Amino acid sequence: MAEPVTVSVRAATRTHGTVEVLEETSFDVGPGRAAVVVGPNGSGKTTLLRLVAGADLPTRGTVETLGAPAAETRQTRRDELALLLGGLPTYPDLTVAEHLTLVAAAWGPRHVLGRTPAPGVDEALADAGLTRVRDQYPGELSSGETQMFALACTLYRPGALVIVDEPEQRLDAGWRRRCRDLLLAALDAGRTLVVATHDHDLRAALTSVGPDGQARGVEVALAAPQR
Amino acid sequence: MSGASQGVPAAGTASPLRGAAGPAGGRAYRAWRRHLLRRRADAGAEGWGGSAYVVYVAVLLGAMYGSMAWSFLASFGMGQASAAWPVQRLALLALGAAAVAAVVAVRAGVPLWVTGREAVHTLGGQFRPGVVLRGRALALLGGTVTVGALVTAAAAAGGGSAREVVLWAAAGGLTAPAALAVGAAAQVAVWRREATVLASVLLAVGVAAATAPRPVPLIACARVATGEPVPCSDPGPGVAGLVLAAVTAAVSCWVVLRTVPARLDVDDVAARGARFRAAGEGLGTGDALAVSRAVGVRPRGPRRVWDAGRPLALLTRAPVLARDLLGLRRRPWTTATATAAGITGSFLLLAVPETAGTVVGAVLLYVAVCGVAGGLAAFSRQPVPGGLFPGSAARVHGAHLLAPALVAALAIVTGAVLAAVATVLRDPAPRADATLVVALAALTVTVRAWVLSSTVVPAALFTPVASPLGDLSVVTVLAYHLRGWLVVSGAAWLAATAEGDAAWGPTAVVAVLFGWSAARKAGQVRE
């Protein structure tokens, strides 16, 4: 019996005008596994993530998520997608803690992260190292805190498939370690991750051997663009 | 940023600039500024050519519209039987309005403006703020005196003799700097509240003076030549009035030239100016949210309203509405002002059913909806609107409409009560159509949602539109930015002037169409 597949990319390319921004790419990711997209700048990492998120369509090939074309999944199964591609959908007049409280209240009994019930707001903030700024507004955070807040909020929102673009941006060594821990916890809770990154440690962590003795994820290496 | 790196002579070195004598004196600043302007001119950006063009446009506009403005103001001339607003009434009202405008303009880093580069050098101790500001303060005072004298002279020219016109011009010119002084004082943080109160008081006095009944009935005089009865001319401001105006001018000059520059936070003023320019450039390039981003209101009040351990009932049942109500609570002044505007608008709609009342009432309701639709505006700015919530973006969008709708409903109910009281107190009773008022309120909510659903000007509107007056694409872009106001006022005008009593029907249909369009756009994938 074939293994179930959460994300299936088959010979997908994307061309803008005369420039092929994503060369032919194929990979599969099962539930509870990660796809770590790596490659130099301009190799098409963000483009590939947008295709997987259903925010863009491939020029050739197919991209399917949760058993349907990615664009259709984005329309019909929006609840299953947790995205951090451009920025976090925040409200300037809510504090950091209130954003998480709002997420918890809005999802109610469905607030389950993978196989585990969602932690409380204070616990989630502590895991992300954001307790100190729990009562700050988003506009009052530093750039690193903003990035960590965005990641924490995205992972606090339920969704079987989590798509994150370069979560290590603007984070120092300590924050990067927390970032790795958060993503590993989501992975081990049974959520599927598609992550683009330049961070070697994060790449190694997400493709390491998991508690079940199998590799947590696969690496999708994109070729350098011709300049 | 060092001065040397900008081509400015460092302290203690031989200056290549003529006249740069003192380390922080006026000559040094003027030489620095001349040098800066020369460099800009050499670079071809905002040099003397730009200044000459500004002067050319100012002269051209003055020549074109100055005479029209003079004739318009002269129609209010004192002593004319047809004019119920003689110059002494207009002057107080104009002074109050100018003071309020000057206080509002503080957000844009004016009336006393400072550039970012000047702020850097001033904070670095190279120049005193007074040295930087003295020249432009003097220019502002001169301009204010000139405009005040011209406006007052024009208003007085309608019915007074040459001597009276000159006296009124003198009084107006001497009083006008008071508005500038109030605005300049509002630029100093510790005086902002007092200046705002003073401006409001001046405006209130002006409105009271303008609308109060004339204390002395006009005494008819007669023309010597024909014997035709004409209204008697006003005796003019009088010696006491002129002395009072002179004292006002002296105090204003002292405030603008000495007191404010010594206490001004030049960094803050420069930042406000930069934000205003950025907002203007954003609007010009098609970003409809540029202004709200530049002048965003800082949330106030307690930061732990929702206790995670004891979630509020509303938060669990209607989280988006609970969020929006919390947002309203954290913007108390905006919420209070918007609510007051909504109540006033509803009262006008219900108690003054004439066309003007309907249009102004609808516009005030729209002001109220704009003020309380902060949650909807934040939703529209999000990269993935409603991405944190379950369900479709259109559903979250609809939930964000609840708070403005509730405030509009509250305003209508309160306005209806006030209108009922007014009905008891006055005769004849108003003939307002309550259904039309509800339809107009719904229209204001859905139009606001429609406006916020598209925050970028379509590129096609920037296409040049040739006309005998030149390129009209600027007008179309401006109309796009003002489309909400235009739709609401236009719909209200059409409803007020429509024949029959069923004007609410088309208004409700239009409201539904705008709501449907906004929801459809909200549901589209934007990222």
TrEMBL record, chain A:
The ABC transporter domain, residue ranges: 7-224
Protein's UniProt name: ABC transporter ATP-binding protein
PANTHER family linked to this entry: ABC TRANSPORTER, ATP-BINDING PROTEIN (PTHR43335)
UniProt keyword terms in alphabetical order: ATP-binding, Nucleotide-binding, Transport
Domain of life, per lineage: Bacteria
SMART domains: AAA (SM00382)
Pfam family, one: ABC_tran
Family: Belongs to the ABC transporter superfamily.
Example GO molecular function: ATP hydrolysis activity
